[in-house]
Amino acid sequence: MALGVAIGPLSYLYLPLRQAAHPPIDLVAPFGVDLATPGGLFWMVRGAMFSGLMFGYPLAEIPAEISDRIVRTLWEKYVYLVAQSAMTGLTRCTAGVLRALPETRAMYGRIVDEMVALGAAEGAGLADDYADQCMTILDAVGANASSSLHHDLTHGKRIELEALQGHAVRLGERHGVKTPTLLDVYAALRPHRDGVSAQAAARG
Question: What is the extent of the structural domain holding 55?
Fold first, then answer.
């Protein structure tokens, strides 16, 4: 019993301590918080970053949706996220640039088409015009819209390459669906997968 009581608080502190030692997100610039200090650690532990989101709005004003086609809904998000993160990461450009240039827009569309083909192979039930819907989303988002992969890449962090483009490539291999554009994106981003520290270690 005493051991459980002791382990509980320690496990609660582990993640903030790990965050302080290896921060995946720079909190100094947006919040002015240094997690290496006791005050910064307390800021993280008490959830100050999210308190405005949790308590700043009436519950009735928080939009929520219950999907009766959860696999389709997840695939809709996955298709768009893979394309958006691939192109913003590969080019280091935002949506405004990607949609304005014919070459980058066409490549974005090829990634979407490959992802939709993977969705069909997985039985995701995507709409027949979902590829067009994705391009409409690209046209509708803000010109500065980017992705978390792009942010992490430009800040030397690890990127979620394996969960996004890597998983898509492996799905293609499993189903016999050709994904040449996704494979090219994966290969180009692979040296950056583990961040700049891993690159430095690899160079010796």
Answer: 2-61
CA–CA separation, 154 vs 92, rounded Å? Answer: 8
In a domain, 202, yes or no: no
**Residues sharing a CB contact under 8 Å with residue 83, sequence separation 6 or more, in sequence order:** 108, 111, 112, 115, 134, 138
| Contact call for residues 135 and 108 (beta carbons, < 8 A) | yes
Q: Are residues 79 and 176 in the same domain?
A: yes
Any catalytic annotation for residue 157?
no
Q: Which residues of the chain have pLDDT under 50?
A: 29
pLDDT confidence of residue 169:
97
Q: What is the pLDDT of residue 122?
A: 96
Q: From the candidates 18, 22, 77, 92, which is the catalytic residue?
A: 77
pLDDT of amino acid 69: 83
Per-residue model confidence (pLDDT) at position 30: 55
Provide the token pair at 120.
């069909």
Hey, what are 44's tokens? 């993280």
**CATH number of 119's domain:** 1.10.1040.10
pTM: 0.69
Residue 74 and residue 54 share a domain: no
- DSSP strands (E only) in 86-171: none
Question: What's the confidence (pLDDT) of residue 199?
Answer: 72
Domain total in the chain: 2
Same domain for 41 and 75 = no
Is there a domain that residue 204 lies in? no
Q: Distance (Å, rounded) from C-alpha 43 to C-alpha 49?
A: 8
